[in-house]
Amino acid sequence: MTSVPTRVPVTARTTPGGTASRRASAARRSAWSALAFLLPAIFLFGYFAWWPIGRSVVLAFQQTNLVDAPEWVGWQNFQELFADPLLPQAVLNTLWFAALSLVIGLPLPLAVAVLTSELRRGGALARTLAYLPVVIPPVVSVLLWKTFFNPGEEGVVNAVLDLVGLGPYPWLQSPDLAMPSLVIVATWSGSGTAILVYLAALTGVSTELYDAAELDGASVWRRVWHVTLPQLRGVILVLLLLQIIGALQVFTEPYVMTDGGPANATVTVLLMIYRYAFLFGDYGVATALSVLLAVALVVVSAAYLRLTRAWSTS
Amino acid sequence: MLRSRHRPLAAATAVLAVAATLAACSDKDASTDKVTITVMGQPAATNKAALALFQQQVAEFEAANPTIDVVGSDVPWDAKTFAARLAGGNAPAVIRVPLTEPPSLIERKQVADITAEASELASFAELNPRVMDFLVRDKVVYGLPEKSYAFGLVYNRELFTKAGLDPDHPPTTWDEVRTAAKQISEKTGKTGFGEISTNNSGGWHLTGYTYTNGGTMIKQGADGKYVASFNDEPTRKVLQWWKQVRWQDDSLGDNMLGKQEDLLAQFTAGNVGMWVSAPPDLYPNYVAAGGDPAKYGAAAMPQGGANATLAGATVLMVSAKASAAQRAAAVKWIEFRALRPNYDPDVAAKYAKASAADGLPVGVPVLPIFSQERYQKVQTAISAYVNVPVKNFASYVDSLNRFTYVAEPAVSSQEIYAALDPLVQKVLTDKNADINALLSDAEKRVNTILTQAQR
């Protein structure tokens, strides 16, 4: 059964002087040329993207000091990792960060984008202001917010809250408030990109639908609910997935602002990986945890895409 | 036809092969006669006078050793970046690290055996054995000391005066420190006692304070293996003291999540009354950051009855990746830059004169890396150039002769400190923190770390 389709082209190719043969030959030449042009890109991508991933998987089963040849240790790195009592807390903290950033970080850029698109005047200024935080280097914005969250009365956030008779709050110094504070910073510095994507998607929404809705007497809220959101469904789903993946890899905010504290309240999985590798010099365990995180992200992404496929195409 | 079809492929392969060859060759010396070593310890560009002195020393060294090129690195040791630099092939030949690092660097074989080169040095036999104990394993020498320190109390003399305290009689016990801290906070509105708790500094301080109460962090069992030993009264007393100062007295200020650099900045700005650190190590940075020497006070480490203090050092080691020629050059440089000014009175006087002329601190009282006699000879030689208000260090200097020096944990010190940071942070950020439960949790965690390290 399977030999039939392969035999046909072979016969056609061996026909001397046949049109099919010339076409196949030209196609082959074209394929080789394309491959030759693609080769540098394939090499660079393979060397800088796939090779490190492959090495990481291997390193997860080795111990190395980066000087001598690595030693094969089997599942020992994973055993060591699972014996670490900090791991469950780091996983829970990471999930807590992801949950908070979805609650705060998902609706906010969508709302800003919809409101901005409704503006009759000043739309360009609003878009610029919304995107501005993305331009600031992450470490700079995080350090800036660290001073804003100063726990004393002189801290900017506390000073503002003081105007309405609230605070002062310990923010980063409190095990309960530290994580929500980090989410606020991450949302502030990252939502500009999502806003731009939503705004771009909004330009694709047919104005006829709005006109029809207006003729039917629909309010602004009903227009958004029944026209805008269904039209943005695909974009929302993609950004949601990117946000989940990004949130599960959170690192800069806890590393720079709290170093995982207070009392491990903001230790995340990536911070643990970093500590294992660069504080304890245990690259094997660090890569074992990296591999587990990567597998978890693939599973989450696949499950998410499967669960939302029906909704995104309906 | 076949050949022409493969020509682009062959060309691309050739380009990549040439690129790979060039990349592989780029880290070799242009001349086989010359050896280049990268050395840590170059002062930052902002510290112009210290940098000028360093560059002058490099020029002198290169003139005396024409086959050696020295490239200075002003990147300081950071446990979090060193491994990445090593992985990237960027580790310097001469590594400058705190005394907590040698055990793990030796264990991981990341530093070279320099026994042959070091034992030829004239000053080698006189090095302080207390420091060398950490740098020698199984009679193999892995490093040489640059400077040594002991914990003490650093304080702001001006804030003391404003708070009605006598800056010439700083507190000597933890109870006195607590009273003084409360007084400073109440009378000046500044932080009475500064504390740090991130980047392993919480565990580092908990260790140092525990020593003053007669405790230890780890102890060696009958089988020669180390286990945690801090779940007892000396450490509990430290945590209770912190709790009282933080939650009863409100003398610790607002920021509980800082590291040494953060607190130094606050101290230099005059916002902190007292804190614990290595006074001689801190002083040059304090002055370089614009601190007023007259306000700087260095006192004995406050005590809880043990008359003991944590002692450490900055040491120089050679990368295991260094070639034999680089290793020899590295040890020569270490002798030239770090050992001679502490050993040879003439050299000490020469650099002291140059440093004083450039406004650099001269005469900061330190814990000697050679014998006390050698230290006295050097001190006499530089006495004409001393510009540090040495009398402000009187209480600290006095303690150096009275206290027992206790070394940092011999195994996994940084990992232990990292495991203790959250414990310290919990006590400082949660007024309902259960000290006994926290100590039990930390003990389990440290024992896990020790078990893994001693497998």
Automatic annotation (TrEMBL), chain B:
Entry-linked SUPFAM superfamilies: Periplasmic binding protein-like II (SSF53850)
InterPro entries according to UniProt: Bact_solute-bd_prot1, SBP
Keyword Signal in annotation: yes
Name of the protein described by the UniProt record: ABC transporter substrate-binding protein
Pfam families: SBP_bac_1
Signal peptide start-end: 1-23
Keyword terms: Signal
